[in-house]
Amino acid sequence: MKIYSLVTLGLTVCVQALSLDINDKDSICEAAAAVANGQWNYYEGLKYGGTVGMFTYPYYWWHAGEAFGGLLDFYTFCQPDNKTLFDLLFQGMYYQRGEGNNYIPANQSMTEGNDDQGVWGLAIMGAVERNFTDPEDVSWLELTQAIYNTMNSRWDPSTCGGGLRWQIFTWNSGYDYKNAISNGCLFHIAARLARYTGNITYAETANKVWDWMENDVKLIFEDTTPTGKKEMRIYDGTKIANNCGIITRTKWSYTYGVFMSGCAYMYNFTSKNGSSEESEKWLVRTNEILEASAFFFNNTIMTEMSCAPGNHCNNDQRSFRSLFSRGLALTAVMAPSTYDTIRPLIESSAQAAAQSCSGGTDGVTCGENWSADGWDTKFGLGEQMSALEVINGLLGSTYDVAPPYTSTNGGSSRSNPNAGLDTKIVTNRNILTIAQKDKAGAGVLTALLLLAIIGGSIWMVI
Ligand SMILES: *[C@@H]1O[C@H](CO)[C@@H](O)[C@H](O)[C@H]1NC(C)=O
Ligand SMILES: *[C@@H]1O[C@H](CO)[C@@H](O)[C@H](O)[C@H]1NC(C)=O
Ligand SMILES: *[C@@H]1O[C@H](CO)[C@@H](O)[C@H](O)[C@H]1NC(C)=O
Ligand SMILES: *[C@@H]1O[C@H](CO)[C@@H](O)[C@H](O)[C@H]1NC(C)=O
Ligand SMILES: *[C@@H]1O[C@H](CO)[C@@H](O)[C@H](O)[C@H]1NC(C)=O
Ligand SMILES: *[C@@H]1O[C@H](CO)[C@@H](O)[C@H](O)[C@H]1NC(C)=O
Ligand SMILES: *[C@@H]1O[C@H](CO)[C@@H](O)[C@H](O)[C@H]1NC(C)=O
Ligand SMILES: *[C@@H]1O[C@H](CO)[C@@H](O)[C@H](O)[C@H]1NC(C)=O
To answer: What does UniProt give as the signal peptide span (predicted)?
Structure first.
């Protein structure tokens, strides 16, 4: 893409900005479709010889999980009769499920952490809740339960009183770190499974994760600001050394989004018997996180505050607003009392995002700084995903579209509570054994493993 020549065409490009009427579903869907088309330009699965379910380098496997979650919502809200789109989503999400039907494909073992598997889990849970057609051999619910079961089995009480490590595999850098987003994904998926299935065991897990985060390691921390105001903080993570005593205090929008909406699901689930102390607890937490979600420039336009102002967001960070947007919309639906606060933030951010989607050769490439006038010359999968999901949020936060289904109300995905616990390829508890039939892949993997063990620094080799 030739940015510089386009910059000189600034005026022409700005004229082509996406039009968006936030009160008109057709207009919203048209804008979303344009952004989604821009997103598919990064899709490997449409390229000759490209891998189904993957996006182009430098985007990793986890980005694909993030992307499919937003595209699935777009399909559900805007184009449920589009068979081409259905096939793209179905094939991509199904293809990457891994040999053990648990979203731990062997050939991602050099990159995949608990948060990566978890972000795929958010997308597959979305398929369950949107009643997306099940594959024949394995259901989306079963796949989500496998993600949940394998993640939960990695709960690690041997250090810091519990929690998930960042990494699944010992050889990956970050195995000695326990981070908020990995634990947030387990918390969030557990909360959604509890509501969807009505099975209280999942809610107990959600409680376990929250309590560990807040009481054991204080990654969730209620601080007092200089003005005396209480503010909920959700920090990035902590190294296991020093009994998780040294905390990395960076705050990311997606972590807030994942925890906030998880709390809203817990609120919704525990309200089923009428209001109670338990549901009140979750509503308070939902509100506290929402109030502390200071990821809006001028309090109106969604901005990744820990990196955007310094202009140093990396490819991961440039995508975080997609999951934050999804979390905001789900929160507004699961805890309707938050709607009046959330709706204006989604509206102003969606409008700002749409007017930033005026760049590139296609004229609908989205920028990073939505507060800037028009396209800011930044581009990437993260920018497209973030814009798509905040525009999705205009629909997802309302009852114009069906709220996420449950097993007794609209959903049809088959349940298998023990999924993921009995596969031949056991990737629970950080053990990886390769099935015989997968010899070629296993050979490569073994070679890489050997390099990792001998060299100790596989990253230099790669
Ligand atoms: C991972 O493995 C699958 C199936 O074994 C293969 O088709 C795919 O190309 C591989 N993906 C990557 C990113 O290497
Ligand atoms: C259906 O989806 C495909 C893939 O996203 C898109 O190219 C096509 O324009 C869509 N069709 C309609 C009628 O919107
Ligand atoms: C609702 O109440 C029943 C009966 O007391 C109890 O078994 C169930 O766990 C409760 N459900 C929730 C979501 O609290
Ligand atoms: C900040 O937001 C207010 C509305 O809340 C708006 O009137 C004002 O123009 C905005 N300022 C900037 C610099 O965007
Ligand atoms: C985005 O653009 C606005 C308007 O030009 C500017 O005030 C702001 O500092 C920029 N924000 C970032 C994060 O670069
Ligand atoms: C729970 O969520 C549903 C949407 O699925 C909503 O209609 C309902 O009002 C929520 N329950 C409570 C107690 O807020
Ligand atoms: C969900 O999908 C099943 C199977 O395709 C279908 O029978 C059911 O009507 C769908 N539910 C809704 C609410 O559309
Ligand atoms: C509830 O979930 C737990 C944990 O996965 C499982 O062991 C149990 O069998 C489930 N109960 C029902 C009734 O499905």
So the answer is: 1-17
Instruction: CATH number for 18-461: choose from 3.30.70.100, 1.10.760.10, 3.30.460.10, 1.50.10.20.
Output: 1.50.10.20
Rg (CA), the chain: 21
**Is the CB of 186 within 6 Å of ligand 6?**
no
pLDDT digits (tens, 9 = 90+) for 42-66: 999 999 999 999 999 999 999 999 9
Give φ, ψ of 215 to 5 degrees. -95, -40
199 Cβ inside 6 Å of ligand 8: yes
- CB neighbour burial string for 420-451, b if at least 16 within 10 angstroms, e if fewer: bbebebbbbebebebeeeeeebbeebeebbeb
- Contact of 104 with 149, CB cutoff 8 Å: no
Measured from the Cα of 36, ligand 2's closest atom is 5
Encode pLDDT of 5-34 as tens digits. 333 333 333 446 789 999 999 999 999 999
Burial annotation 311-332 (CB, 10 A radius, 16+ → b, else e)? eebeebbbbbbbbbbbbbbbbb
Ligand 3 pocket: which of 200, 276, 280 to mutate (most atoms <8 Å of CB)? 200
Domain boundary assignment for the chain: 18-461
